[in-house]
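For the sake of clarity, the format in which proteins appear in this thesis is described at this point. Each number in the token line that follows is a code from a learned vocabulary of backbone shapes. One such record is shown here in full, so that the layout can be seen directly:
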Amino acid sequence: MSDPEVDFDEVKPADYAAFGIRWLILPSYMQPPVPAVRVERRGPYALWRIPDSGYVQVVDTRGVVSATSGDLGSFAATFLPGLSSTDPIFPTVAYGPAQAAPGTLPLGEQPHGPPGQIISERPDLTDGVLETTVLATRSSVVLLSVSYNPGWQATVDGRASPTEMVAPALIGVRVGPGVHTVRFVYRGFPDYPQLFVLAAIGLIGLIVIERRRRSLAKS
């Protein structure tokens, strides 16, 4: 997300929602650039909360952009300025050789009202878990404002559901109309034990080689 973050616009509420920004710490004399509620003031700084901004949102998707790890931010400069604060429409991403997920809105169709709303949000980011209850008015995507990673898995109403990459580099899961409980869980890289074993074998090999080298040098 480092490349897309360069194009973050501090005066656009839609960018705060896309990047999951809820809190602002500003000098006490400065007003926030977007609507916010002051929570606390200490010394020369004040803490502000952006209402209705959290880790997840229900969005429409349409269109496809292609990206690799080298040009992930190349389309952010054109995509983010056109992102609506009321009815944002996000393109899906064809990342590397993977195909992009199909959009929830057909080309040329204009949305009639928001695709849904967040009823509740229960994050436990220490354990890499976020659970949310949403009300979707049509087929849409529940978008989690974290960097896309294959380690993130999702369930919808207790059933495993495939995740998809959504611009600028976020993770989403598709839901149909109705009330749904969506759970995101970060499992991490599954092969860490094997990597530790491989690293240990490599380290032992280096020690053996170094001892033989020293032994030959003394003889």
Q: What stands out?
A: Residues 192-218 form the longest helix (27 residues). The mean pLDDT is 84. The first strand starts at residue 23 and ends at 27.
